Amino acid sequence: MAVERTLVLVKPDGVRRGLVGEVISRFEKKGLKLRALRMLWMTREQAEEFYSVHREKPFFRDLVEFITSGPIVAMVLEGDSAISVVRLMIGSTDGRKAAPGTIRGDFALSIQDNVVHASDSPESFEREFRVVFSEEDVVGDYERC
Description:
By secondary structure, this protein is of the alpha+beta class. Helices cover 39% and strands 19% of the residues. It has a single domain (3-135), classed as Nucleoside diphosphate kinase-like domain (Alpha-Beta Plaits, 2-Layer Sandwich), CATH 3.30.70. It contains 7 helices and 4 strands; from the N terminus they run E-H-H-E-H-H-E-H-H-E-H.
């Protein structure tokens, strides 16, 4: 297996509902390493860049409005096959259809209020990472400290 990094956002609904600690805890219990963490309120420009792959889709405006509606918590996680592992852990985009035991299955209220976002590919990670972090924000192998 390859060690990968992935980006996860706890969206405004997850922050408002006090689910940040629960989300981080699930990933840490799985063995993923937290390499960067920050809380921010995404600007419209950041949101449009973040969701740029959806620019021509009818739901683009709703994505931008929602992600800018409150603070988010962004994190970089690292581990073996981190992208696919995280995607399995968060569950289906539509929280009403997500399997119990997944983050969305346990906490999401709808397709929009679905608590988290996670990169779906290495290319998405690279693009999304640049919107909220810089390389200087990433902590290396802190386990050896």
